[in-house]
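[step 3/7] inverse_fold.run input=structure_tokens len=360
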């Protein structure tokens, strides 16, 4: 068996231990005589999986009791519409900060449903930084304010949680979910596709404060109505059963590591190793303002497109795959989510050092 170091932005690596567990249970889950892929989502045995996953998720991520947690389908992109449909409940206005492509998509989608204001954007510098905002920048009458907390494509992350006063803050946390502790009480809603840090594709996690439920616009499709999904216990219809099961295994893996603090420390060390190398390299550079660097997605470039292409090609041949940057920005990007081992970074940096020697 030869496994590569996979730096994909998502779907991405899962812990090898988790894959082995899933393999062992693939055909006969814990003596049930069936695979999790074949189970009725209403069965007793599956109930234990989904309830267990929710309980662990709350425990590991420290989700406050006054928040509901939903396991949904449709990806983060479906929530770009669900957010305004559920939250534009009084003034019909919302404030958006655009720090990258996914934030921009959410901003565009929301415009179908209300008066949406662009508070700030970092487009002027190719989304290489996070704007500094204070409470005065926000509309106190807005129904919510919106940010993308970690910008997967551009490799930035909010180094702070904006103070929006009493206006609920909504954050897309797709690419930083459960990578380090997060004070969820500072947000009205956080949500994300789980295929980056915690599960295979197909699962979207939405965490919403209880007092924000029940105000969806009447025309909201029931599948996008958070209250309907809460009332159905994430099972208004068939949930993404398999992805929820793997999510539970990933959460158990995090607990075995020692919990979220230990995982976060590993993640910090991984990112520091690569950023330190980039900061001292004469060939590679990182375009992001230092204080806004992402711990999950590290972007980097060589001086020419030819060298970038050569690097991606040689890296893939050496077992470091999916290092090509997003098609909209070029260069390289190493997505180093929870399941990427420290060894993957050590080996990547050693490889980059050799590449620099040969081409610098
Ligand atoms: C990947 C990603 C998305 C899109 O997620 P889908 O589940 O594919 O819809 C949205 N936002 C962020 C920050 C992402 O990283």
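[step 3/7] decode complete -> sequence:
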């Amino acid at each position: 068996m030869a496994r590569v170091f996979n730096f994909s932005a998502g779907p991405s690596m899962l812990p090898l231990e988790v894959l082995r567990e899933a393999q062992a249970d693939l055909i006969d889950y814990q003596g049930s005589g069936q695979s999790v892929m074949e189970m009725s989502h209403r069965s007793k045995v599956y109930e234990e999986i989904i309830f267990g996953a929710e309980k662990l998720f709350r425990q590991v991520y420290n989700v406050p009791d006054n928040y509901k947690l939903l396991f949904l389908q449709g990806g983060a992109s479906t929530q770009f519409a669900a957010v305004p449909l559920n939250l534009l409940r009084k003034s019909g206005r919302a404030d958006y900060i655009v720090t990258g492509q996914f934030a921009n998509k959410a901003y565009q989608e929301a415009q179908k449903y209300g008066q949406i204001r662009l508070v700030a954007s970092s487009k002027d510098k190719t989304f290489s930084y996070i704007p500094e905002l204070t409470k005065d920048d926000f509309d106190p009458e807005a129904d919510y304010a919106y940010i993308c907390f970690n910008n997967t494509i551009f490799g930035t992350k909010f180094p702070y949680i904006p103070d929006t006063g009493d206006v609920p803050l909504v954050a897309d946390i797709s690419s930083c979910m459960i990578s380090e502790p997060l004070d969820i009480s500072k947000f009205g809603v956080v949500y994300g596709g789980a295929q980056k840090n915690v599960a295979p594709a197909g699962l979207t996690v939405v965490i919403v404060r209880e007092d924000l439920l029940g105000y969806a616009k009447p025309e909201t499709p029931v599948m996008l109505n958070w209250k309907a999904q809460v009332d159905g216990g994430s099972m208004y219809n068939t949930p993404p059963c398999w992805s929820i099961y793997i999510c539970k295994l990933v959460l158990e893996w995090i607990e075995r590591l020692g919990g979220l603090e230990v995982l976060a420390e590993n993640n910090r060390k991984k990112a520091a190793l690569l950023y330190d190398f980039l900061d001292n390299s004469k060939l590679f550079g990182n375009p992001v303002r230092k204080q806004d660097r992402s711990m999950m997605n590290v972007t980097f470039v060589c001086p020419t497109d030819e060298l970038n292409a050569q690097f991606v090609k040689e890296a893939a041949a050496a077992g470091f795959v999916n290092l090509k940057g997003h098609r909209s920005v070029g260069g390289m990007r190493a997505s180093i989510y929870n399941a990427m081992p420290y060894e993957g970074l050590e080996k990547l940096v050693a490889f980059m050092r050799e590449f620099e020697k040969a081409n610098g």
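[step 4/7] annotate
The chain is about 35% helix and 15% strand.
Residues 259-359 form a domain with the Aspartate Aminotransferase, domain 1 fold (CATH 3.90.1150.10).
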